[in-house]
Every structure is written in structure tokens, then in C-alpha cells.
Design brief:
With 523 residues, the protein is of the alpha/beta class. It folds into two domains: 3-249, Rossmann fold (3-Layer(aba) Sandwich); 266-520, Rossmann fold, CATH 3.40.50.300.
Length: 523
């Protein structure tokens, strides 16, 4: 077989800290190599180094990265640009940070084919639409949308469309299904596999989801703390792991959820919630057009309870969160502790915001790279409190301790932490104001199973200790089952089923719900 890529003794360090040591592998044409390991093991750093995307970050790389016999570490920038995006495509882990917020979707896809294929703008736009159709986004609305107007899963599919735009010889897929629901995930995996077969493309598939790696990869490398701990065929690794760490990764994690007494009192009550995007008025000031993202949504969240919201990408899950937080315009009734937040003034709303906090899907883009961890966590105290700098620092230390982050993190920056650690920091930031409600929007989607388990256990203990209510948004039905008391199922902006987790999982009534649950528990 034709060897496309060979990595020899790759070392990567940031300052005195080594994040990758003596890492070697080879990649043949048509081969699918899986790379697994817990958050912070060095998977993404290794992937970025293959195309010298760490240049300028302060990283020091040594060793050899031979693509078609040429060392990318020694390539001139002009030659390297031809390889990046042309012969080697990459799907990044965090789509919001890899898409330009100022350009529409079609322009970002078209730009890639204009540069590498020399197409004119009209041809490039047509090609962009074809690529979006390939990844399940064949709507004119998506083509003309900005990244912030799309759901996390839709953004991820746009990134995949850009990565495959030039029929690359190698595709580096860094958590390509992280933000996708189980049905779309299956479609994307089928698409990637189909493209790989048709183009005889090689793939480096990086994922924390071992079920996916098991299904589609030929060989697997297990990473821990920057070294290749174990490697072999996918079948051998999963059926007969040698290392204790590999056995831990492939084992099942079960969260022991305590059964809670139901209260008649509701912390949050939502009635007839509607959200319309792009609505305009005609010359007679009548409302016309627009996309109905939410349609007459009703639900309640009890005190000290967790409501799960599930549904496929684009179903309106994150839109509910934004509406409840009054970050977007909506109609209907939203009551928090009996106060209708739709009818109060901005001044009253600001005072109430400390009682509602949010943990976002993408911790890297939601933490300012210019602020230290101490400043990030204590930011809410600056807005809502009148504490001294020293007192704010003490409160930040307490919040970080609650989520298991060491005190030396206070003066460090987000890029110095793994995905799992960044998500803990996000939880600490939400926790510091002692809110009554925390909305968690896909808080574990980018985390491996071991770290997912740690974060879910952390959230359970925080709820038990402080009596906080959660709205937990996720496409991962295993996670919803582990932590939620009640669940609502969304499709196309409408609630199609609701009930306790036990009712929904054991006896779903809607065909769509049945399909979601069936897909989620296939392995």
C-alpha cells in the first residue's frame, strides 16, 4: 500500500512542559487510524502539529512529519499552504472558533475551493451548496446564514463540508461528531466512510467516543499524558486491551443518581414560548416571513430538579436556553420564582441574572483567552457584588475548589487547560454567584467518557449540596438518562413528548423518540 504519512519521534513542548513524547505512527492510503485518550492526553495538539498549526503558539516541535516523503516541519510556507486544506483536510473539535463569524457559510466553503481549485465565485457557490447537501444541510437558508445563526451540530457539519471540499488524500477528524445527535452522527460517519472508500482517502479519527472508534477504525493508538501507551488493531484493542488505562477507557461508567422527592413548587415556568428568526414587517407593519425556531413550548423546572432537553441538531434546544436567559427576543411567559422576566425592565432583569447562570457547549470559546482563570471565575462578582479584589480572589478559589481545580490555576490562562478542565472552570464561573438555576448547554459533548463521568458526578454533588436546579441540554441520551429527573423531546421547535426519564426511556410513545433511544444505545 501507498504510505501517505509517517510521523517519527515527534516531541512537542510548551515552555518546560512536554505534552508529546516520542510519538510515532504511519498512515497508509485508505487506512482509518483511531486515536483515543482522555482529555489532556495530547490528541488534539498532535493533530494540529501535523499541519504546523501550532506555529506562533510558543510550541516547540522536533522529530519528523513526512507527508509523501517531505517533512512538513521543514516546508516553506507557500508549499505548506498547498498541503493544508488541499491535500490534507481537517475537521476541528470546536466549530465555533474555526468558522469566521463575519462571513456567511457559503463564502467560507467557497473560499476553500476558490483557492485550491481555481473556481470562479459562481461555480464556487454552487460547489458550496453541493457540499452542504452532502453533509445534510441542503437548505438555501443555511447557505446564507452566519455561523452564530446555526446550532452546534449544524456548525460542525459546515466544518466537515470545508474539510472535504477539495477531496483530500488525508482527512484529520478531531472529534468530528462531538456536537451531533445520534441520528445525524450516524449520517456523518456514513458520509465520511463513503468518501473515504470513493476517494481512497486516509483518515486520522480522533475521538473520546470509543464506540465510534470501534465501529469505523482499522487501527487504534491509545494516548495518555503525551505518549502512545498502547496500539494495535481496533478489534484487538477493544476485545483484549493490555494496559490498565485502556481497560479503564473501554469500561462502562454508571452514575448513581439519587431519587428525589417531587415538589409542587416550580422554580421556572415557561408557557407558550415562541421564537422567530428573520421576521420582517411589510409596509402595513404586518409581520411576515421568518423562521419559527420555537412553537408554543411549555415546561416547568422544579426546585432541586434537573430537566433534560433532547432532540436532533437544529431542533431548538439551545434556542430555549437563550430565550429563558433573555438573550434573544421571544414571546410567551417565562416565570422565575413567580417573576415574569418577559415583562420586567432591563434594570430588574440585570438584578435577576445572578439567579440564572449558564455553562456553554464550547468551553474554549466561552472563556476569554485574555483573562486569567481567577478573573474569569470572579467576573460575575465584579458585575453583581461590591467585594474587594482580595475577597473576589478568595471566592474564586472556593469556587474552583468546589469543581476540583487546584489553586495554582488562578493566574493561568484557558489555553493551558484541557477540555475537561475548561468545562470545570466554566461550572465554577456559574457557581460563584450561588444561582438558583443553571442552564447547561451540551456541557459534556466534547469530553471523553471518563471525564464525562467526573463532570456529571460533580454536577450531582453540587446540586445535592446547594439545591440548584438544572436545565440540561444534550444530544447524548446516555448522559440525559444518567443525570436528569424529567425530559422533554424537541423536534422542529415543538415538544413532541415529555415525562420522567424512566417513563420516556422505558416506554416512549413517539416514533421519533423511539428512534433516538434506539440509536443512542446501539454499540
Amino acid at each position: 500500500m501507498n504510505r501517505l504519512l509517517e510521523v517519527k519521534n515527534l516531541f512537542i513542548s510548551f515552555g518546560e512542559k512536554r505534552v508529546l513524547e516520542e510519538f510515532s505512527f504511519s498512515l497508509e492510503q485508505g487506512m482509518n487510524l483511531g486515536i483515543v485518550g482522555e482529555s489532556g492526553s495530547g490528541k488534539s495538539v498532535m493533530a494540529l502539529s501535523l499541519l504546523r498549526l501550532l506555529d506562533g503558539s510558543g510550541a516547540k516541535c522536533s522529530g519528523e512529519i513526512l507527508y509523501m516523503g517531505k517533512d512538513t516541519l521543514k516546508m516553506k510556507e507557500r508549499e505548506l499552504r498547498g498541503v493544508r486544506g488541499g491535500e490534507i483536510g481537517m475537521v476541528f473539535q470546536e466549530p465555533l472558533t474555526s468558522l469566521n463569524p463575519l462571513h456567511k457559510v457559503y463564502k467560507q466553503i467557497a473560499e476553500s475551493v476558490e483557492i485550491h481549485q481555481g473556481l470562479f465565485k459562481k461555480e464556487a457557490k454552487r460547489k458550496a451548496y453541493e457540499l452542504l447537501e452532502l453533509v445534510g444541510l441542503g437548505e438555501e437558508r443555511i447557505l446564507n446564514s452566519y455561523p452564530f445563526e446555526l446550532s452546534g451540530g449544524q456548525r460542525q457539519r459546515v466544518v466537515i463540508a470545508i474539510a472535504i471540499a477539495n477531496n483530500p488524500k488525508i482527512l484529520i477528524a478531531d472529534e468530528p461528531t462531538t456536537a451531533l445527535d445520534v441520528t445525524i452522527e450516524a449520517q456523518i460517519l456514513e458520509l465520511l466512510k463513503d468518501l473515504q472508500d470513493r476517494l481512497n482517502m486516509a483518515m486520522i479519527f480522533i475521538s473520546h467516543d470509543l464506540n465510534i472508534v470501534r465501529r469505523i477504525c482499522d487501527d487504534v493508538i491509545v494516548m495518555k499524558e503525551g505518549i502512545a501507551l498502547e496500539r494495535g488493531s481496533a478489534k484487538g484493542i477493544f476485545e483484549n486491551p493490555k494496559e490498565k488505562y485502556t481497560k479503564m477507557l473501554t469500561s462502562d461508567f454508571v452514575l448513581k443518581k439519587e431519587k428525589k422527592d417531587r415538589s409542587d413548587e416550580n422554580l421556572l415556568k415557561v408557557e407558550e414560548l415562541n421564537v422567530v428568526f428573520g421576521e420582517k414587517r411589510d409596509i402595513f407593519f404586518r409581520k411576515i416571513g421568518g423562521f419559527k425556531a420555537l412553537k408554543n413550548v411549555n415546561f416547568t423546572v422544579g426546585n432541586n430538579h434537573t430537566l433534560g432537553i433532547v432532540g436532533e441538531s437544529g431542533s431548538g434546544k439551545s434556542t430555549i436556553a437563550q430565550a429563558v436567559l433573555r438573550l434573544i427576543k421571544s414571546s410567551g411567559k417565562i416565570e422565575l420564582n413567580g417573576v415574569n422576566i418577559e415583562s420586567i425592565s432591563q434594570k430588574e432583569l440585570r438584578a435577576l441574572r445572578s439567579e440564572m447562570q449558564v455553562v456553554f457547549q464550547d468551553p474554549f470559546s466561552s472563556l476569554s483567552p485574555r483573562m486569567s482563570i481567577g478573573e474569569i471565575v470572579a467576573e460575575g462578582l465584579v458585575v453583581f457584588g461590591n467585594l474587594t479584589k482580595k475577597e473576589r480572589e478568595e471566592e474564586a478559589l472556593k469556587a474552583l475548589k468546589e469543581v476540583g481545580i487546584e489553586s495554582d490555576a488562578l493566574h493561568r490562562y484557558p489555553h493551558e487547560f484541557s477540555g475537561g478542565q475548561r468545562q470545570r472552570i466554566s461550572i465554577a464561573r456559574a457557581l460563584i454567584l450561588k444561582p438558583k438555576l443553571i442552564i447547561l448547554d451540551e456541557p459534556t459533548s466534547a469530553l471523553d467518557r471518563a471525564v464525562q463521568f467526573q463532570v456529571l458526578t460533580l454536577l450531582e454533588s453540587i446540586q445535592k449540596k446547594f439545591g440548584i436546579s438544572y436545565i440540561f441540554i444534550s444530544h447524548d441520551l446516555r448522559v440525559i438518562e444518567a443525570i436528569c429527573d424529567d425530559v422533554i423531546v424537541l423536534k422542529d421547535g415543538e415538544i413532541i413528548e415529555r415525562g420522567s426519564v424512566e417513563q420516556i426511556y422505558k416506554n416512549p410513545q413517539n416514533e421519533y423518540t423511539k428512534e433516538l433511544i434506539k440509536s443512542a444505545f446501539l454499540s
